[in-house]
Design a protein that fits this description.
By secondary structure, the protein is mostly helical. The chain has 14 helices and no strands.
Length: 326
């Protein structure tokens, strides 16, 4: 359905000046195909859920170490990308918000993994990673990621409040202590926090109101993929809001399709009773309302692919058990 909505919007609009068809095709070979490959190898027992989480933490761990290197040296280790505590950390990605997305994911995954660690050494390692991820997340200066993390942790508290114990409060105390300690000692962080409190949108309001004007002109099927590149405000590269991006690109039909897709994911999370995916999904949704691109954001979309894969793992395992019983 998502591909159908994209095809309709691209066909009825002049998208020759954009890479609309390439973006649509990339949904097939870059995301759908990768998802199918992951499902296949998982069904053949090449790896399990624990190994998946381990590799995610290792890859994010490499990124956080690179972020720390950039903080100390002024450039990252891999591509010598410039970054520091004044301008913000961006790792090897050349974008603070995208690097912040990765570091925010690191905060959530390391935090959720702590309670499953059976050995004390592993718990210490995960707590150390959590502190490092919090530190680098703060110094990306990505306010969208900060807000998304708060929303994700609020969701965690609401779901688990009845099961809280002293250990949970200890972990929250660690996270809060690191954040407060850093905030009160770094002027640049305080300034970004003040901007957040005062709802300084960095001109996003102008972008969003313009998007609404574009939407009113083509309400049902939008302007086609990557329409902002041609029809948007040329001073701003992105829409900075996933909902408005879908409205502008695919119209109301696209929003309905994406909403249905989101409903299916939420439904599967509820059926599997694995709310870890729920907390990550909340984080991604909130972050996408201020940054990231649901149409062309490669890293963001790949994270979504992994999340969908994780969400449906138990269903695949149950189906496989059913086949064995037959």
């Amino acid at each position: 359905l998502i591909l159908i909505s994209m095809t309709i919007s691209n066909l009825i609009n002049d998208v020759s000046a954009t890479n609309a068809w390439h973006l649509e095709f990339s949904y097939i070979y870059r995301y759908a195909l990768i998802l199918l490959i992951l499902f296949y190898f998982y069904s053949k027992d090449f790896f399990d859920k624990n190994l998946l989480i381990t590799f995610i933490l290792i890859s994010l761990g490499v990124q956080v170490l690179d972020g720390l290197y950039q903080y100390i040296m002024g450039y990252d280790l891999f591509v010598h990308n410039i970054g520091n505590k004044i301008e913000g950390l961006s790792g090897p990605i050349f974008n603070r918000n995208i690097f912040g997305l990765l570091m925010g994911m690191g905060v959530i995954v390391s935090f959720l993994s702590i309670k499953f660690a059976s050995k004390i050494t592993l718990k210490i390692l995960l707590i150390t990673l959590l502190v490092l991820f919090i530190f680098t997340t703060l110094f990306t200066y990505s306010r969208a990621v900060w807000v998304a993390l708060i929303a994700s942790f609020l969701a965690y508290i609401i779901v688990n409040i009845r099961n809280f114990n002293k250990l949970h409060f200890f972990y929250f105390f660690i996270a809060l202590s690191v954040a407060i300690l850093v905030f009160f000692n770094i002027d640049s962080l305080q300034n970004r926090f003040i901007e957040l409190i005062h709802a300084n949108s960095s001109n996003r309001n102008e972008i969003w109101f313009y998007c609404l004007d574009l939407f009113k002109q083509k309400m049902f099927f939008g302007w086609g993929l990557n329409a902002w590149k041609i029809n948007g405000l040329q001073d701003y590269a992105n829409v900075h809001n996933s909902l408005l991006e879908i409205l502008v690109s695919l119209g109301i039909f696209g929003v309905i399709v994406f909403t249905y897709f989101l409903y299916l994911v939420f439904k599967q999370i509820k059926n599997s009773k694995d709310f870890n995916a729920f907390y990550v999904l909340i984080f991604l949704i909130v972050d996408s309302l201020f940054d990231q691109s649901i149409i062309s954001g490669k890293i963001f979309l790949n994270i979504i692919v992994i999340l969908i894969f994780y969400t449906y793992l138990d269903r695949i395992r149950n189906d496989k058990k059913g086949e064995l019983l037959i």
